[in-house]
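User: Quick sanity check before I run a bigger batch. Here is a single chain. Can you write out its predicted 3D structure?
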Amino acid sequence: YRTMLKKISVDLIEYTLSNYDHIESSYYETQKSMVQELARLNSEENKDELIQLASLPGIDDTGSHNRNPNSVESALSSVERIKYSIHRDLLEQFMVSRQEYETRKRIYACYLALPTREKSVLKILYMDGSGVAYRYKYNVPKAMKILDRAESSITRIRRDALEHIILLYDTDYPTIELYKVDINTMRLKEYR
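Assistant: Done. Predicted structure follows.
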């Protein structure tokens, strides 16, 4: 697995900016839930449930007919296959969750690297906390009033900012260094 998505869309950028306050807490809650599920999977209490499930006659977890449902060896073997399958699924969910989190962190880092004017427009359009931030068009009049600009100017600045986020995201710079990138040259700024 890559730790981030290869390509991002405008929709993902808008969603990320609109919900950034909740992304980190949601990620940690998801991770906590998965760790608890893994602990439950390995508990003795759960082992009894899995043995009962595995000893039922019928189709086993591999999709084949369970010919000897009363066999202890068969039940224990099925328990191990069921545990392995659940463990694999949880690990895959963990990796997907991590990828989403890392992608959104990088998008936010790209946002922070934008010029002040572009950041201001995106903040008003997507991050103002009004509850309709994801639908930026509701916030265009507010941006026009606060920034004293025409609608076409707000729309152009928004478009440029989203394009810059995509360009920054696609660079090879580490996320931690994105704030140092000059938007015009796409090179690291020199600090003295």
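The first strand starts at residue 58 and ends at 59.

User: Great, the batch can go ahead then.
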